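Please check this:
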Amino acid sequence: MHVLRSPDEAALRIEQTIDRLVDVLPPIANVLSAFKKVLAESARIKAEISFDGGFAPPAPDPLRFEQGIPAGLGEEGVARVSSRLNDTAQRMISILRQSFPLLSANLDRLSAGLDREGWNADVFLRSFLADRNLAAAALAAEVQVDEKSVLFAMTAALKPILEKAAELIEPSIRELTWLKGCCPICGSLPELSFIKPDSSRRFLRCSLCAHTWCFQRMECPCCESGASGSIEYLYVDEKEFERVEVCNKCMKYVVALDLRKCSDPPMLELAAPALLHLDAIARLRGYHPMATTMWNGLDL
């Protein structure tokens, strides 16, 4: 169930939680502080979106869905999301300039590029959902901005819109079977793996639309290997409930939480960035993130 909050309440909730995290996580305090305005604005935008009463995405074909074809947005969903993309991108770029001043020149060029005649948000969205890295690379070449900056900014722009859209799509897939490690709605890989407090089941949280779904405990979401010894856990002493799940077959990782062992369960919206110190541990051992996120995709 999704809790309805006003835009100001949604933003304030993020800001206050990050302030608390900064106090208890000194090693990543600077990064969390840099993202405070960005994530708060994202929450504000999401709370503002109504999609004019919502839209009714077509129900996915159960057979295709169970074979691993994500539900997608549907034509109406693509149109609704893309119609908001340019305005949301400009709004997020303004916040990103404040939070990451070293990126200002790149962000200025990207902003101008999105305002140029011929920029097609619908085409970009379809490309981004198919392969966000290729879409970012193509746009970067067009506006002459480095690929990482484009991926960073356009992910920030799309996330609040897609998160809202995913909430509307979720009822159409609720009763269907999904066994894949990628998101059943948008097809993206997860930013977080977690076990709920009242369950022994493992859930994944999408890195793009924030949808959560159940997945096998001892299987890699990326390569779907369940071979003995392929999955390993890395963690900091005395905090075994916070860990990195690494795959020794594809060499990818995802940060993870066992919420059964957390006395103060975190907000899922901020769980992945709050575990950024574990990203560093995995990378030092030669693993790579399953999904590129705003906080693990740049050298901040």
About this structure: DSSP finds ten helices and seven strands in the chain. The mean pLDDT is 93.
